[in-house]
UniProtKB/TrEMBL annotation:
It comes from Corynebacterium yudongzhengii. Keywords: Cytoplasm, Lyase, Schiff base. GO terms for biological process: 2-deoxyribose 1-phosphate catabolic process; carbohydrate catabolic process; deoxyribonucleotide catabolic process. It comes from the Bacteria. Belongs to the DeoC/FbaB aldolase family. DeoC type 1 subfamily. This is Deoxyribose-phosphate aldolase. The keyword Cytoplasm applies. It is found in: Cytoplasm.
Length: 215
């Protein structure tokens, strides 16, 4: 894989709560320079002017996922109205741990119905879940009409993405849903390992470092 090909996997991300408008403007400029797929920013940073070659992604129910479904759905709907092409929503992790997968599915479906034409990615927080729970959440996301399942917010103390989690997700939905690896991916080797395991998108703030490792 060459640098251009790898760049198109990347959502260049800035979700730190202290990020300023100037930081976001710098993110967009860097993303355009690197040739990545999209920028991912907090909802309050929308609307966002970007070059034609960049998609805009944002988050909903972030980072805890413990919001009411109606709030996640309203947040996602407003974000799309303000120009977001893609929304990465966080599931209710506690419900997943309790194995209430009907609730997880309904939570995802509420957001899906609010943004029927936008790309919906579902953040599972895989480091906090067992393999069986990850699989069940992937199936719930598929039933609810999501486009992607995603490993992590990058904010959970249990950790971020792992090759093993991507392999579990790929076994559950690979080929039918996209799989986004996000959380702690800071170098080329890690990014490529995630792609080999089945990831079809990479969320990263260290995009330049990742891309410097390939030609």
């Amino acid at each position: 894989m060459n640098r251009t090909e790898l760049a198109r996997y990347i959502d260049h991300t800035l979700l730190k709560p202290e990020s300023t408008d100037a930081d976001v403007a710098a993110l967009v400029e860097e993303a355009h320079d690197l040739g990545v797929y999209s920028v991912c920013v907090s909802p309050s940073k929308l609307p966002l002017e970007v070059p034609a070659d960049l998609k805009v992604a944002t988050v909903a129910g972030f980072p805890s996922g413990a919001h009411h479904s109606e709030i996640k759905a309203a947040e996602a709907k407003l974000s799309v109205a303000q120009g977001a092409d893609e929304v990465d929503m966080v599931i209710n992790v506690a419900r997943a741990v309790a194995e209430d997968f009907d609730y997880v599915e309904k939570d995802i479906r509420a957001v899906r119905e609010a943004i029927p034409k936008a790309v919906l990615k579902v953040i599972l927080e895989t480091a906090a879940l067992s393999d069986e729970q990850i699989t069940a959440c992937c199936h719930a996301a598929e039933r609810a009409g999501a486009d992607f399942v995603k490993t992590s917010t990058g904010f959970h103390p249990a950790g971020g993405a792992s090759v093993h989690a991507i392999e579990v997700m790929h076994a559950a939905v690979g080929g039918r849903l996209g799989i986004k690896a996000s959380g702690g991916i800071r170098d080329t080797e890690t990014a490529l390992a995630m792609i080999v395991a089945g990831a079809t998108r990479i969320g990263a703030s260290s995009s330049r470092t990742i891309l410097e490792g390939v030609n």
